[in-house]
Amino acid sequence: MTDPTTTHPAAGHQPATPLPAAPPPAPRPPRATTAASATVNPAPPAPASGSGNLLTDNPELYEARFPDPHGLAARWVEATLRAYGAGPRVLDLGCGTGRDAAHLHAEGRRVVGADLSQAMLTHARRHYPGPTYVTADLRGFDFGPGAFDAITCLDSALLYCHTGDELDGLLASCRHALAPGGLLVAELRNGAFFLGNTELLDAPTHSTLTWQGVSYTALTTLWLDRAAQLLRRRRVWTADDGSPPVTQHSAWRLLFPQELRHLLAAHGFRVRELHDGPGPRTEPAWHEDAPAPLGSADGDRLHLVAEREAD
Predict the structure, then answer these.
(1) Rounded distance, CA 302 to CA 161, Å?
(2) Measuring CA to CA, how many Å separate 282 from each of 76, 95, 98, 223, 297?
(3) SS (H, E, C) 80-106
(4) How far apart are CA 170 and CA 193, in angstroms?
């Protein structure tokens, strides 16, 4: 699992009322992809904590690796919320550096950004003020009943729930947190893409990044763990400053479109959209005048809009 444009009031906004304070989450084991205790290192040759994720531990490096200067992801979310007349109260699950949350705040929405990474939350509060940033685990959280009109979950953050129990915990928490008619808007990898398609798996990939005078190279290998229904990734970072290599392991649950529909229905959601694009990470990318999605699921990304049904 990101992003400045013209500010104007969001459609369907309600008069402002205070958001409920977020209670501390129940203790859970730290995840490699969403570290619960990390610190910021302004020029990191290695992870700043034991999470094993160089980018999560170092938000400045994350933003250099995944720039979004035009706020494309947040613009897609805002356009989706407007299209469905969503209210102003938004929870950004897995908010990361705070770029998307800050953009939605600038559009006039009242935003809470939630993440497990303390490094990311510290960065968000410092660089993207406006939203309220809190520590929360997407596998189980409680902001009170009906606290939000919409929940966003971008960049495959939903897929950090690896087991059925974790997915149930996420969707039950989302239903509890949403007002009736509230929206869950997500962008994630498409499990069906890997049915006979190996282009992301055939060979390791190399990428390079220069940041603060240090050149970083990443060697990334993806493979399928079919028994666990996970896409696993090993990424080895090397730097030209003489620091030792850093190896990061990550994994995402692979969900098929019909499986996702079934899970959502079981938790009281009605799917309004589920398709492979256009979206903020597709090629060609989404834009405000992009054609309407066709409902296909052939690409490597899925875009979900689901409505919380009344009790």
Answers:
(1) 16
(2) 12, 20, 22, 21, 12
(3) HHHHCCCCCEEEEECCCCCHHHHHHHH
(4) 23
Q: What is the pTM for the complete model shown?
A: 0.83
The secondary structure element, H or E, covering residue 259 is helix 257-266
Give me the torsion for CA of 280, 281, 284, 288, rounded to 10°: 0
CA distance 258 to 276: 13
In angstroms, rounded to a whole number, what is the distance separating the alpha carbons of residues 182 and 189?
A: 23
Q: Which residues pair with 17 in a beta bridge?
A: none
Residues 212-226: b if buried by 16+ CB within 10 A, e if exposed: eebebebebebebee
Q: Which two tokens stand for residue 249?
A: 């392991």
pLDDT in tens, the chain (311 residues): 333 333 333 333 333 333 333 333 333 333 333 322 222 233 333 434 345 678 888 999 999 999 999 999 999 999 999 999 999 999 999 999 999 999 999 999 999 999 999 999 999 999 999 999 999 999 999 999 999 999 999 999 999 999 999 999 999 999 999 999 999 999 999 999 999 999 999 999 999 999 889 999 999 999 999 999 999 999 999 999 999 999 999 999 999 999 999 999 999 999 999 999 999 999 999 999 999 999 999 999 999 999 999 99
Please give the biggest Cα pair distance in the chain. 59
Structure tokens, 37: 């205790």
At 114, list the tokens. Answer: 């939630």
**From residue 180, how far is each of 36, 249, 311 by CA, in Å?**
31, 38, 8
Cα separation, 14 vs 137, whole angstroms = 28
